[in-house]
Amino acid sequence: MKLLSAFAIGLLFGCGILISGMGDPAKVLNFFDVAGTWDPSLAFVMGGALLVTAIGYRLVFRMNTPLLAQGFNLPSRTDLDAKLIGGSAVFGIGWGLSGFCPGGLVPVLGLGMEPLLTAGAIFAGILTARWMIALGHRQQPAKA
Question: InterPro entries from the entry (predicted)?
Answer without folding.
Answer: DUF6691
